[in-house]
Amino acid sequence: MFDVEKVRKDFPILKRKIHGHDLVYLDSGATSQKPESVLKAMDDYYRNTNANIHRGVYELSVESTRLVDEARKKIADFIGARTEEVIFTRNASESLNLVMYSWGKKNITKGDAVLVTRLEHHSNFVPWQVLCKEKYGSFRVVDVDSEGRLDMESFERLTADGKVKLFALTGASNAIGTLPDIKKLVEKVKSNNKDVVVVLDASQMVPHMKVIVSKLPVDFVAFSGHKMLGPTGTGVLWGKKDILLKMEPFLYGGDMIGEVGMISTTWGDLPNKFEAGTPDIAGIIGLGAAVDYLEELGMDNVRQHEKELMKYAMEKMMTLQDEDLVTVYGPRDAEERGGALAFNVVGVHPHDAAQILDSFGIAVRSGQHCAAPLVTSFGVPAMVRATFYVYNTREEIDYLIEKIREVPKVFA
Amino acid sequence: MSDYKDIIIDHYKNPRNFGELDNADISMDEANASCGDMIQIQVKMGNGMIEEMRWRGVGCAISTAAASMLSEKIVGMNKADLEKFGEAGIIEMLGGEVNAGRMKCATLAYRGLLKIFNNE
């Protein structure tokens, strides 16, 4: 059974007071909090094992290398991948840029189209926009409907000519929670060009639900470690081995080479070819511990817990909407959405709303959530966003709702 | 709620010098990319000094109140005066306290105004 009170005890930061109130942390979509086990794994590494990997024959280096290898294996098992297909990066943005630089620049040429959706985080939007500008490619953006679901008519129109060579999509919108039907969309885009390469931004999926990459009809999957209880500075790119083998490195330097000669150099094997320089060793070990923690909870339980929270929060928010106190954005049905709840308090700018909520100890995000094309499609400059995770409770949602009622009073 | 002093609420609800100038010498726009706030500022100049300022835009209480208060404060200022005013002047004008996360809101209009002289 999923015991949220037990989970909360594992997160030291939840004991903090903010402006004299208990912290109600509702911004896990930006970065999650870290459990004791993750902090301890990193601390232990620095205290007892610290040495560079793949460098020495001495004991500490051997142990460090083994810890990084073990972490990679844990992550590979967690997402149903082969270890050599798991590449460590700094974050999902870097993972997506790696694909753009190493695959995109070589394969996208004049006349090719890159398809993205209006749901994308800037990190899965801007790299492709820049690539198309540079290569004279056609940059196409699938529109959304009034509830923030993908507009299938727009999708059909943009894919009909079969020119789409790369399709980059999010598996779960970071701003409004939409969960696109990945299989259906990929099937459709491939019906016009069977060779389309598909890049999935799973930053808001992998932390929240079971993701088995080998079962998804995609070629690359990018996600961040710090949104899934791991430390900042860690991200992952998974890629299909046959594509990764054909790609050139992204960054050059230490640890990624085969043989270095005076005239030319060969590249190391996967995944080292894509991991130049000393990686964030402690971070990777911490991410391994985060995966252990999530495996212990069970990803199906995590998804169930969040779905129940979302359903509960949505009902309460709808009451506020009926009272004309808030406007809620995104799909109404909890089945159709991840753990992001976007709203505005009527007549109050989201920055003001977020600051007033902060004065009660509630941490919510305000702004465009790095998804300006999506947020502005709703006719507003910005939104407030609450995101839920394993340590959030119904009581916290009750408290949020109670304090949202206080917000307009400041300006009354 | 230390940031929302009465004077801020007053300027937010009744913004001063909101609108357009018929005979503006300079117009400029400034935006906060991360939050979508936008402001258009128009000024009338005389002898290198700001004689009048009008502004309009969408923004939060802090950026709106700051623009409104600034539109009164900067009358008679030249380039050196405006530069000297600085972020410290903005904070003082808003009552001595601005949450660090809101400084971009507080300085939106000010950053726009600085462009007047930079564009000359």
Automatic annotation (TrEMBL), chain A:
Domain Aminotransferase class V intervals: 24-400
A Pfam family reported for this protein in Swiss-Prot or TrEMBL: Aminotran_5
Catalytic activity from the UniProt record: (sulfur carrier)-H + L-cysteine = (sulfur carrier)-SH + L-alanine
Co-factor requirement: pyridoxal 5'-phosphate
Record keywords: Pyridoxal phosphate, Transferase
InterPro entries: Aminotrans_V_dom (IPR000192), Aminotrans_V_PyrdxlP_BS (IPR020578), Cys_dSase_SufS (IPR010970), PyrdxlP-dep_Trfase (IPR015424), PyrdxlP-dep_Trfase_major (IPR015421), PyrdxlP-dep_Trfase_small (IPR015422)
Biological process annotations from GO: cysteine metabolic process
Primary enzyme class: transferase
Domain of life: Bacteria
Protein EC: 2.8.1.7
GO terms, molecular function: cysteine desulfurase activity; pyridoxal phosphate binding
Family that this chain belongs to: Belongs to the class-V pyridoxal-phosphate-dependent aminotransferase family. Csd subfamily.
PANTHER family: CYSTEINE DESULFURASE, CYSTEINE DESULFURASE 1, CHLOROPLASTIC
Function: Catalyzes the removal of elemental sulfur and selenium atoms from L-cysteine, L-cystine, L-selenocysteine, and L-selenocystine to produce L-alanine.
Name this protein carries in UniProt: Cysteine desulfurase
Taxonomic lineage from the root: Bacteria, Candidatus Collieribacteriota
TrEMBL record, chain B:
Superkingdom of origin: Bacteria
One Pfam family cited in the UniProt record for this chain: NifU_N
Domain NIF system FeS cluster assembly NifU N-terminal as annotated: residue spans: 4-112
Annotated GO biological process: iron-sulfur cluster assembly
GO MF annotation: an example: iron ion binding
InterPro entries: NIF_FeS_clus_asmbl_NifU_N
Protein name (Swiss-Prot/TrEMBL): SUF system FeS assembly protein, NifU family
Source organism per UniProt: Candidatus Collierbacteria bacterium GW2011_GWC2_43_12
